[in-house]
Amino acid sequence: MIYAKYYPETKKLETLEEHTSPLLLQLDRLKSLYKDTFEKLGFSDDFWKALEIASLFHDLGKVSSLFQRKIKKLIKEKEKVPYGLSKEIPHDFISPIFL
To answer: Are 2 and 15 in contact (CB under 8 A)?
Structure first.
């Protein structure tokens, strides 16, 4: 299981999929509201596809063992960290690398 967020006030865990799905729904909403406007500005379907890909990948850096360990420590789960990893690189630095 890959976690994206932990809400301590409700003790709710959110998986990466649960975190990303609403963003994709909002992207669909944005597209339905503004597609014509963006087309008039010269944006093609490639623009919307690029946004979809960016949305899918926006938090993929959270798969990092060190990020997962941070969340799992809060819920008293163990996370194995590969040998040699000692310094966490922020997930928002790692996520764009996947693109």
So the answer is: yes
Over 90: is that where the pLDDT of 86 sits? no
Residue 72 makes CB contacts below 8 A (sequence gap 6+) with 3, 78, 79
Three-state secondary-structure class, residue 44: coil
| Angstrom distance (rounded) from CA 48 to CA 84 | 39
- Token match 């890909």: residue? 53
Q: Give the separation between CA 52 and CA 66, rounded to whole angstroms.
A: 27
Q: What is the pTM of this model?
A: 0.82
Q: Which amino acid is at 15?
A: T
Q: What are phi and psi of 9, to 5 degrees?
A: -65, -30
